[in-house]
């Protein structure tokens, strides 16, 4: 008999304003769960979940509150120490919470107790769970996603990260033919046929390590796998590694498995951290809100971050899979063994783990400079924008309505920059001492950002009190500099000042080197200056001539740097030529490009002859004799429109897009013969490999550079002759390419070509062949739906993504999704009409996050067309968001982020964007996730 329950509806705000939760609200649990046993009886149409919770005393006074979602759970029974409980007497259900009064737990004696056994049985319907939170069905597979608050959609439980319990026994029962693979956290301790029902089987899993409920996971499905073993070097433990997917995709799992082995070895070498279970499983899931999830011993991955072969995956797909496999593995210690006390501390695990995976990827790529360029590109394009918008928040937020909205670039990417600053200030050895002390103190605990800071400070006997302000300061700080050379004293003076949203000065590490202003020789190697006041002057004595400072080397702090030199463009050109710091050399070139693009947009030319500086820098980079093709490629790529927009008070996306295109075309015309010669040289070198797709840094860099050059060559399409030549060149590469990287890059050029019948015929033929060759491969067709900027990111990635970010659209593309993505970023004037038509395509569905992101979110990132006059792009997005919110609030709220920065645009554009936000805000019902985004956006 059902005691409580309902349909699996979306949690919504109808007539009452959703409650805002504050960091200051935190209180320890008066009662907590010490251990858990569960039984899942999975049957089509319903799943029964039995739980036995060992309740033990916590801290302070209060009742036992179990979180749930009433619309997802049907309560069938509840008992305490074997005695059936009566609603309204022994327990109360109000809204989503089930409360057991303290008097019931204490009993008649009203005294302390050692433990109580609380048993519940609930019924859930995974098949109708379109939110993809909790237990849901993806295709023919059942799986879970419990971070941040999905476990409460499975059963009643204190669903918060500071309740770390041992899940002693989790039994999963299902149809043996339909779901032959049953997986859970920890180690498998038992399996077999169900007695009395030969058609069903079970598996029991046990995890000996305490964990919060957000790390819980089960999977049931018909899965294939690849496997290996790894012997840990500290203790010699043999660990079985297994990566699962649907059987037809097993051949694409090898790279993920190899990446896991590399990750385990790297963590042992760099941090002395060893894996602690007998098995490590990864499962690829196609319907997934996140990128990947670090569930203890059972990671669940978006298929786009697991499946790879040369036919369907680009070089960046391979690099990204390796990075994210590393990220989730590294969470075993920075997130699982030591977790967050509350969700406001999310950056404690995510910022730290992002930093760790960035360092891992830099080592695997054998180029930390390339990795740093990619990471900073992403930070500036996404996180700086977030800092400047209505969703701005510190890396440790002070409040939220829906925690899902705070899996942000700020928490992840800026959080990683804060960790990097610890490393910069304390040095490699000091940082390692701090990490060792952190684990020594807090293994098995749920802690705070302050605990991490204390470990770093205590291990190094350092005062980091002022540094702690980074955790509570929103917005992007600005560092300004002024220089003076005192010839008589042979001393160079560097004055730094800072501005931020903090009432007190931040502790900012500024890495600086000095170059001789005549020869370009480095006269003072990199030195870390600690800016701790509003303004400080640093002296460099003993210099026999004028020098040029290279400031913020390696992007040593997440700040905006502003100089005061009257000859700054000349200085940038000098640094672009001579700076020994790879990142700053690239950064100086980017500043030159940006200056020229802004001048072009405004119809002015500076007296410093910016165009000649850009030409000189481009020519010098193109002529480099180097095997580091990736650095060379990045030196030739102009800044993205999104990163440049952050430097403008009022953004005109159409004008910015045109100016960037005009500069690209001027460079392509000026150096056409040199670009073509280099392109042909690289093509010949690649043909000599006989079609083998190698994944070493040199081969990846060579393809990256060649595709950058192709993009320049194909930008020339003003005349029929140019369009014919460009389309023929791109089509030749499309037809002759052996791997997805070059094929997709060629398609990205073709998709924005129109005009003559022959040009259109090549474009359409390439699109059709790409779609046909996908043969139903979802990852490739998603690429087909999207477009050119997305493609550019495939071979020149400009973003780090994990978990929840709306720019999944640009990064997590499988073959089917490639087919989607390649059209949503077309530069043709009818792109919106094509996107609307693709929404009606039989391969498109709003219920699959990858598919939706590959078309809708990619189009909203196609700034010049999304923001086209008339506001039709905004109306289209608003309609899609309204439909999506009824299915998947996490997805709808992410898409809503494209509308909230309306104040950055012209009055007409801003009014149209705001009107769409208001329509969404007026919806009845509206999910809490979307309500939080649109309400902040309307302020």
From TrEMBL:
TM region(s), chain numbering:
none
Domain named Aminopeptidase N-like N-terminal: residues:
115-215
Which superkingdom, per the lineage?
Eukaryota
Q: Is the keyword Metal-binding in the record? A: yes
The name under which this protein is listed is: Aminopeptidase
Q: Which organism is it from?
A: Stephanodiscus triporus
Q: Which residues form the Peptidase M1 membrane alanine aminopeptidase domain?
A: 257-467
> Which segments constitute the Peptidase M1 alanyl aminopeptidase Ig-like fold domain?
475-561
């Amino acid at each position: 008999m059902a005691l409580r329950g309902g349909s699996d509806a979306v949690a919504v705000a109808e007539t009452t304003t959703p409650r805002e939760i504050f960091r200051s609200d935190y209180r320890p649990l008066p009662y907590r769960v010490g251990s858990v046993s569960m039984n899942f009886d999975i049957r089509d149409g319903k799943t029964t979940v039995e739980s036995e919770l060992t309740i033990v005393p916590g801290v302070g006074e209060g009742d036992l509150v179990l979180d749930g979602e009433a619309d997802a759970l049907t309560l069938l029974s509840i008992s305490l120490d074997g005695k059936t409980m009566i609603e309204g007497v022994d327990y109360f259900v109000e809204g989503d919470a089930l409360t057991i009064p303290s008097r019931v737990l204490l009993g008649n004696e009203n005294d302390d107790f050692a433990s109580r056994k609380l048993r519940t049985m609930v019924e859930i319907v995974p098949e109708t769970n379109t939110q993809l939170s909790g237990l849901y069905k993806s295709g023919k597979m059942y799986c879970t996603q419990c971070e941040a608050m999905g476990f409460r959609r499975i059963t009643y439980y204190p669903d918060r990260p500071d309740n770390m319990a041992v899940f002693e026994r989790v039994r999963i029962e299902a149809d043996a033919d339909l779901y032959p693979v049953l997986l859970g956290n920890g180690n498998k301790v038992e399996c077999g046929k169900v007695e009395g029902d030969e058609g069903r089987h079970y598996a029991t899993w046990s995890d000996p390590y305490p964990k919060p409920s957000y790390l819980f996971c089960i999977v049931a499905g018909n899965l294939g796998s690849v496997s290996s073993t790894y012997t840990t070097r500290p203790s010699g433990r043999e660990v079985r590694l297994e990566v699962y997917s649907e059987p037809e995709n097993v051949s694409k799992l090898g790279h993920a498995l190899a990446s896991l082995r590399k990750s385990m070895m790297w963590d042992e070498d760099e941090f002395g951290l060893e894996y602690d279970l007998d098995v490590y499983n990864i499962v690829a899931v196609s319907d997934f809100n996140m990128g990947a999830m670090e569930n203890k011993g059972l990671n669940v991955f978006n298929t786009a971050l697991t499946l790879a072969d040369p036919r369907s995956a680009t070089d960046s797909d391979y690099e990204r899979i390796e990075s994210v496999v590393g990220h989730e593995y590294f969470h075993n210690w920075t997130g699982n063994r030591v977790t967050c006390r509350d969700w406001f501390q999310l950056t404690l695990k995510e910022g730290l783990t992002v930093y760790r995976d960035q360092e891992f990827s830099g080592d695997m790529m054998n180029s930390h400079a390339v990795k740093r360029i990619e990471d900073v590109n992403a930070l500036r394009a996404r996180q700086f924008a977030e800092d400047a918008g209505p969703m701005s928040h510190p890396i440790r937020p002070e409040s939220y309505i829906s925690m899902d909205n705070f899996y942000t670039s700020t928490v992840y990417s800026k959080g990683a920059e804060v960790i990097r600053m610890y490393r910069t200030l304390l040095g490699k050895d000091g940082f390692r001492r701090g990490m060792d002390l952190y684990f020594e103190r807090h293994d098995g605990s749920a802690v705070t950002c302050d605990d991490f800071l204390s470990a770093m400070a205590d291990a190094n006997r350092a005062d980091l009190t002022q540094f702690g302000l980074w955790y509570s300061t929103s917005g992007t700080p600005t560092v300004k500099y002024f220089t003076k050379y005192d010839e008589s004293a042979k001393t160079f003076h560097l004055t730094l000042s800072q501005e931020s949203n903090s009432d007190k000065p931040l502790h900012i590490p500024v890495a600086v080197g000095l170059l001789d202003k005549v020869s370009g020789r480095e006269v003072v190697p990199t030195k870390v200056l600690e800016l701790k006041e509003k303004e400080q002057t640093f002296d460099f004595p003993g210099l026999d001539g004028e020098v040029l400072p290279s400031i913020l080397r390696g992007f040593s702090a997440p700040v905006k740097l502003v100089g005061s030199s009257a000859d700054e463009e000349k200085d940038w050109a000098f640094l672009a030529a001579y700076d020994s710091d790879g990142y700053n050399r690239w950064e100086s070139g980017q500043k030159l490009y940006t200056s020229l693009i802004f001048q072009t947009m405004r119809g002015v030319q500076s007296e410093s002859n910016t165009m000649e500086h850009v030409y000189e820098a481009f020519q010098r980079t193109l002529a480099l004799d180097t095997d580091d093709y990736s650095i060379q490629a990045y030196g030739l790529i102009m800044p993205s429109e999104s990163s440049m927009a952050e430097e403008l008070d009022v953004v005109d996306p159409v004008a910015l897009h045109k100016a960037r295109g005009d500069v690209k075309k001027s460079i392509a015309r000026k150096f056409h013969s040199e670009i073509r010669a280099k392109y042909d040289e690289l093509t010949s070198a690649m043909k000599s490999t006989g079609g083998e797709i190698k994944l070493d840094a040199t081969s990846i860099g060579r393809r990256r550079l060649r595709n950058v050059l192709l993009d320049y060559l194909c930008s020339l399409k003003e005349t029929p002759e140019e369009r014919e030549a460009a389309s023929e060149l791109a089509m030749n590469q499309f037809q002759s390419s052996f791997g997805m990287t070059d094929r997709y890059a060629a398609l990205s050029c073709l998709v924005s070509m129109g005009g003559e019948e022959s040009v259109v015929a090549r474009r359409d033929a390439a699109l059709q062949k790409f779609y046909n060759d996908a043969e139903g491969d979802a990852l490739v067709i998603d690429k087909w739906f999207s477009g050119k900027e997305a493609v550019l990111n495939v071979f020149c990635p400009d973003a780090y993504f994990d978990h929840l970010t709306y720019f999944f659209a640009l990064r997590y593309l499988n073959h089917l999704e490639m087919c989607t993505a390649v059209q949503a970023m077309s530069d043709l004037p009818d792109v919106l009409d094509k996107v609307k038509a693709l929404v009606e395509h039989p391969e498109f569905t709003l219920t699959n996050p990858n598919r939706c992101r590959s078309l809708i979110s990619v189009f909203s990132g196609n700034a010049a067309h999304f923001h086209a006059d008339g506001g039709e792009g905004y109306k289209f997005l608003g309609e899609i968001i309204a439909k999506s919110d009824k299915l998947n609030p996490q997805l709808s709220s992410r898409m809503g982020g494209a509308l909230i920065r309306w104040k950055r645009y012209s009055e007409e554009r801003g009014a149209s964007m705001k009107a769409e936000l208001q329509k969404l805000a007026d919806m009845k019902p509206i999910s809490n996730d979307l309500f939080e985004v649109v309400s902040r956006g309307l302020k």
